[in-house]
Amino acid sequence: MVKPGLRQAVLHSFIVDPRRTRGNALAALHGTRESAMLYRPQHMYKLISMPNTLSIAIIGAGLAGISAARHLSEAGHQVQLFDKSRGSGGRLSSKRTEFGDLDIGAQYFTAREPGFRRELKRWLEAGWVADWEPQLYLYEKGQLRPSEDDQQRFIGMPRMTGLSRQLLEGLSLTSSCRIQRLRRDEPHWWLEDDQGSEHGPFDRVVVAAPAPQAAALLEPAVQLAQAAARINMLPCWAVALVFEQPLDTPVQACFVRDGALDWISRNSSKAGRKGPDSWVIHASTDWSAAHVDDSPLQVIAAVQQALAQILGCDLPEPVFSHAHRWLYARPAEDCQWGALAAPELGLYACGDWCLGGRVENAWLSGRQVARALMGAG
């Protein structure tokens, strides 16, 4: 919910609540695209003159940004995605190694909302995602036992980033580009990156970055920046371990309620994951916050020790280990904003932090910001 005093301060901006808004299905109008061209110090994006066609920049190529891009592109708008990483997918992240692909971000996703379930059905039919039915356990009060959780789970194929790669098909993405400032030159927007280059002009901008990063970019819309700045994001250390021989345990996934860990996954039990016995472990947010500045080696050692205790066995030396710090892993509280919008400026924001830290919510937030943008004209 909106924090006290915030709603009264929002004059021309608004917060979109997906529970209270309805939108018609988007027409599948595909406009042609032209690649970016370098013009002096600025990257100019040539636009096709089409009635009611907007040029839209989306900062962040995680699932929220990709969802917004797909909905807007299918409605005939010209969309340009930007991401600071080399790839895409945000927390739909996989690390490619000589021992196979390791899902170090989101481990799986679920589907509840009808629209998302319809989209999921299409992904399943296309082979972009698959069911994952692991032997699921629960570790609580020092006891390891089978879990009664029967939630249906889905994974990207052949790795979690596989889904985002498929959804990006036909979209224009500028990767390895960190946008650090937005500049309004009425009636257009320009995006300045950390190398001093400008990208534009754009009619609209959607910020699809984690809340703390979004707050800085949303400064031209003070109320939106303040809303994003109030979101507290929690960290999470993720550790991947690969063993030459399979560990002697039936566990393929485990929710952990005690100690340093939060989640254990036998990554190699997922469909499409090739290679030797691989595991991905997520530390709890409390432990991660307390050890946020530890070195990767320190984190790996601590996580290995905790894993051995939970599984009740001595771990052999892994043939590969990796630690990744997700500084903005999940919001501390679930909001129900859906998306943020300042239509008088043509500035918008979306992300799982606008709804709650789940993969499905990222997609829904992207859809919601697209509807808000098109509804505003």
UniProtKB/TrEMBL annotation:
The lineage of its organism: Bacteria, Pseudomonadati, Pseudomonadota, Gammaproteobacteria, Pseudomonadales. GO terms for molecular function: oxidoreductase activity. Residues 157-373 form the Amine oxidase domain. It comes from Halopseudomonas yangmingensis. Pfam families: Amino_oxidase, NAD_binding_8. This is Amine oxidase domain-containing protein. PANTHER family: FAD/NAD(P)-BINDING OXIDOREDUCTASE FAMILY PROTEIN, FAD_NAD(P)-BINDING OXIDOREDUCTASE FAMILY PROTEIN. InterPro entries: Amino_oxidase (IPR002937), FAD/NAD-bd_sf (IPR036188).
